[in-house]
Write a structure and sequence with these properties.
By secondary structure, the chain is mainly alpha-helical. The protein has one domain (3-300). The protein has 13 helices and no strands.
């Protein structure tokens, strides 16, 4: 195969990976829209339990197709995996609770700052190096977050702190996932995600369980299906394209959230929120580009400095 054909094949894989991720963000945004609808009548712990029930089954089936389940459950960092599973379980529940008080687009506008938190916390938690330009981008992104939530103003909503807490929890979850991935396989991490969350839900849901109406049950099945489809597409995208290239396209979830929020809930973001969101997203995209350039420079010069001077 000549180099041109090889390059064309690589570009095709990248395009398919990006498309898979964009579709995954559409499923996740749809999932949040249904969650917002259900939180008006279904207790959040019950909603989270049903989601985890189906996701745990999906994780077990997926992992068993890759390797024997006994091997997949053997984590080298079991306590860290347990903490990671509990953290994302709590974040999912808190996010669903926050949707009771905030619009989908508003929730995601604030939540979009999580890549900036990842960059800031990667220094103390993972010992990574972050250059001046990326620190400036992180600062700009946090300014954008402050513009959105407007602390101290008359229109400030305490519910915005829920979205901010979710972003912090999700950022820590990503950093812990990055750490365990050095020793544990993807299948192991997926299993701990699903099984630990399901087990945690089992301890809480009996205190909140209420009879479900037929319509609510259907929506719960739909939300479980969107979660599984979204994760399948996410897995596929990571198989086709590097994470550093895919990262900016995660922000499509904010676009879908705005469209769905307006179409089904009549949500309209104000100018201030849009300006803040643009700062957050722009900073995140810049950081993703810098990480890509750093990773490329590292591959090309493995024996030289890990980061170029301009990082």
């Amino acid at each position: 195969m000549n180099s041109t054909a090889s390059d064309d094949g690589k570009q095709d894989h990248l395009a398919r990976g990006i498309l898979a991720l964009i579709l995954a963000t559409l499923f996740f945004a749809g999932q949040d829209a249904i969650t917002k609808h259900l939180t008006t009548s279904v207790p959040v712990p019950q909603l989270v339990f049903v989601r985890y029930l189906f996701f745990a089954l999906f994780a077990l089936i997926y992992a068993s197709r890759q390797r024997p389940l006994r091997q997949a459950f053997q984590a080298r960092r079991p306590l860290t995996q347990l903490f990671r599973g509990l953290l994302i379980w709590a974040e999912i529940g808190l996010f669903a609770y926050g949707l009771r008080f905030l619009g989908i687009a508003e929730m995601h506008s604030i939540f979009a700052c999580f890549p900036l938190i990842i960059t800031a916390l990667s220094v103390p938690m993972l010992g990574e190096s972050v250059g001046l330009r990326r620190w400036l981008a992180v600062s700009a992104g946090f300014v954008g977050t402050l513009i959105i939530i407007q602390p101290g103003s008359g229109i400030f909503s305490a519910a915005a702190l829920i979205a901010l807490a979710c972003a912090l929890m999700f950022a820590i979850y990503n950093l812990v996932t990055r750490k365990v991935s050095r020793d544990d396989s993807f299948e192991t991490s997926l299993l701990y995600f699903g099984v630990v969350g399901f087990a945690a839900s089992l301890t809480v849901v009996p205190f909140y369980w209420e009879p479900l109406m037929p319509g609510e049950l259907i929506w719960l099945l739909v939300i479980s299906a969107t979660s599984i489809c979204g994760h399948l597409l996410l897995i596929k995208s990571l198989q086709l394209a590097p994470a550093v290239i895919l990262q900016p396209f995660n922000y499509f979830i904010l676009v879908w959230a705005m469209i769905i929020g307006y179409s089904f809930y009549g949500e309209v973001l104000g100018t201030t929120t849009l300006v803040g969101a643009a700062l957050v997203v722009g900073s995140g995209i810049y950081i993703a580009r810098r990480e890509y350039l750093v990773a490329r420079a590292t591959r090309r010069r493995p024996r030289k400095a890990l980061y170029p001077p301009e990082a």
